[in-house]
Amino acid sequence: MKIINLGSKEEACHYVANELLKQIISNKKSVLGLATGGTMVRVYEQLVNLIRINEIDLSEITTFNLDEYIGIDYDHPESYYTYMHDVLFNHLPTWNEEKIHLPNGSAENLQEEIKRYEDLLDKEGPVDVQILGIGENGHIGFNEPGTSFDSLTSIVGLTQSTIEANSRYFETKEEVPEQAISMGIHSILKAKRIILLAYGPKKADAIRKLLTGEITTDLPASALYNHPNVEVILDNNAYLSEQEEI
Ligand SMILES: O=P(O)(O)OC[C@H]1O[C@](O)(CO)[C@@H](O)[C@@H]1O
């Protein structure tokens, strides 16, 4: 695992956007693993700009998102389907909607949906570059502490800490869904390359725990130590308190 502190949020987001751009340029049939959350907003803004200035055709690019809420419609303002379209897909005309994949949290049969998603990932994958944020409790995707590292796409419950953290996007905490469909930890680790991005003081505790090197299901992100090609991209705020602890 390579740990890289790029100092600022802007530099860290720029690095991730640049790596996605380079992947797309190196293979116009790339498979990208995409994440949501506040962390990725600036990455996608920068990526949109880079794709525009390079006039890149995205029609053969496949994308897989990590997760989606259960209990709100796909077009709810806070669904990850809406987020991805608002922040990335609607800004560039050449995305092929048929190659854009998110789990369907409003599917009638959720058991069938989780199997469909994992099967599709195996059929279209492996993911060339998977980008990841990290929860304040160390989750990746919506795989909360305690999740088996062997997990595949499944229906997951959100912890109070995640509901609390994500309530900033909803009018009230009560509106935050309590369940989601998430790619599992094993599903995420099938990617060829993984880039985890974390910035800001709220992520410092999870990063400090990650950087101890202990591999434990208490910290889902520590499963990334079992993957040969992982970069953790940080800013001073996410990294500093780790140094202060030493
Ligand atoms: O970037 P945020 O909003 O802090 O969220 C952290 C992570 O939790 C999630 O919201 C759940 O998967 C991710 O999308 C995100 O990477």
UniProtKB/TrEMBL annotation:
Ranges for domain Glucosamine/galactosamine-6-phosphate isomerase come to 10-225
Q: In which pathway does it act?
A: Amino-sugar metabolism; N-acetylneuraminate degradation; D-fructose 6-phosphate from N-acetylneuraminate: step 5/5
Q: Show the active-site residues.
A: D67, N137, H139, E144
What's the Enzyme Commission number for this chain?
3.5.99.6
InterPro entries in alphabetical order: Glc/Gal-6P_isomerase (IPR006148), Glucosamine6P_isomerase (IPR004547), Glucosamine6P_isomerase_CS (IPR018321), NagB/RpiA_transferase-like (IPR037171)
Q: What class of enzyme is it?
A: hydrolase
Which is one GO molecular function term here?
glucosamine-6-phosphate deaminase activity
| Catalyzed reactions per annotation | alpha-D-glucosamine 6-phosphate + H2O = beta-D-fructose 6-phosphate + NH4(+)
Q: Which PROSITE patterns match?
A: GLC_GALNAC_ISOMERASE
Keywords for this protein: Carbohydrate metabolism, Hydrolase
Family according to the record: Belongs to the glucosamine/galactosamine-6-phosphate isomerase family. NagB subfamily.
* Known role: Catalyzes the reversible isomerization-deamination of glucosamine 6-phosphate (GlcN6P) to form fructose 6-phosphate (Fru6P) and ammonium ion.
What's the protein here called? Glucosamine-6-phosphate deaminase
Species annotation: Mammaliicoccus fleurettii
